[in-house]
Amino acid sequence: MNMNKNMALALVLLCLTSLGALQCVKSQSTSNVFINPDGSVSGTSDIQHSGNLYTLAGNIYDQILVIESNNIVVDGGGFTLQGAGGWGAAGVAGKESSAAINLTCSNVTIQNFKITGWEVGIYCPYNNNTITSNFISETRSCIAIYADNYNVVGNYLANSIDGVLDKGNNDIFSKNWILNDWQAFLIYYQSSGHIITGNRIENNTEAINTYNGQGLEIYHNNFINNQKNVATISDAFSAPLGGSGGTLPPWDNGKEGNYWSNYTGVDANHDGIGDTPYVVRSDIYTVDRYPLIPPLDIPEPSVTPTFASALPSPDTSSTPPLNGDTNLSNSTATTQPSGSSSTGEKNTQLQVTLAIIAAALAVYLIVLIAIGTFRSKKSNKCKLENQEQNSQKQ
User: Scanning 150, 160, 335, 352, which has its CA 20 to 30 A from the CA of 8?
Assistant: First the structure.
């Protein structure tokens, strides 16, 4: 009887252990993380809060960060927002339809995040925000802006379909490295008043794709080894396809233009400006009147170099996307990243394994107890039968 009690106690303890392990797995759920309008944080314990500064303290997997509080700074601390993956090559769909950061607020600075494997890195439907010093890769759109007055400075935007998708107005882009994308900038017809200056725009299929180049200022950029420097919606290889064409922007500020890696002109007077204009496009004639001879010194954005050096080579042979629009909701992705060697995923796998082992041990003990109970009842029945037989003999 004492043995049965001990086994029952062990069973209870193991069941509690199993429930605890399952609860740990549940804590890795895909519910959104919120910085709420009142400044509180929900959905994770990995965001530290001090005044108006919110700092990420660990990697987050497949959870959308929804920011609803105005006038704050959200610092990624160099940690990663990891999506399910699958984006980054034109014509290839991913496993989710969401943004890593949903910026539904104003006067907010987003900085020092690593974001990869989402449809959109940072989704921007509200005015007056700053995005700086982030590394965003393998997305459909690294940054998707649907509002006005953004300052996008010092970011890596790489290995994606769009480095920047912009439907807003009066946005400033400076000191960004935009590399290995299908199109570095996709600027829609209703957008105007943008300044694109001091950026490194390199190895993209299209550097700038615009519906309407009016109101754009593009100068002091390094255009390096792009297959096409400028496209409009009438071009066969631009995205989105169709339309009746677009106008092209000016490529200088009236005194100085941009550096072009394939410029073949000379600088006889050594003033740093080519003596002949650079023809950006000949079929739709547009020129940079003051092309720069030496490339500009545009510092590398301050993100972890080992992460940036892990970029895969771009796939420029695939079919371009059929349209560049991105319709997002606040729905949460539910697919876990595959093949990750990160600590968070290892911990999750360990917790699942422990839960399975605990459940198996619990079942094993239940069977042992059932066998013990059956044997005890059988033994008691035999004793009663023997007693009855002895009584009859007497």
Answer: 352
- φ and ψ of 224, to 5 deg: -125, 120
What is the gyration radius of the CA atoms in the chain, in angstroms? 30
Q: At what angle do helices 2-26 and 343-393 cross, to 10 degrees?
A: 160
For residues 234 and 315, is the Cβ–Cβ distance under 8 A? no
**42 three-class SS:** strand
From the list 111, 16, 83, the residue with the least C-alpha distance to 335 is 83
Q: How far apart are CA 265 and CA 165, in angstroms?
A: 33
Q: For residue 363, how many C-alpha atoms fall within 13 Å in the half-sphere facing its CB?
A: 6
C-alpha count within 13 angstroms, C-beta hemisphere, residue 165: 25
Q: 50: number of CA atoms within 13 Å, CB side?
A: 5
- Alpha carbon distance, N-terminus to C-terminus of the chain: 32
Residue 17 half-sphere exposure, CB side, CA atoms within 13 Å? 16
Q: Which two tokens stand for residue 383?
A: 């004793």
For residues 346 and 363, what is the distance between their CA atoms, to the nearest angstrom? Answer: 26
CATH 2.60.40 is held by the domain 31-335: no
Tokens at 203, concatenated:
């190895």
Model confidence over 34-68: pLDDT tens digits? 999 999 999 999 999 999 999 999 999 989 999 99
Structure tokens that stand for 158 in this block: 């790489």
Nearest C-alpha neighbor of 119 from the set 306, 302, 324: 324
298-308 residues labelled b (16+ CB within 10 A) or e (exposed): beebebeeeeb
DSSP-derived secondary structure letter, 52: T
Residue 178: enclosing H or E segment and its boundaries? strand 177-179
Task: Indicate the DSSP class of residue 6.
Answer: H
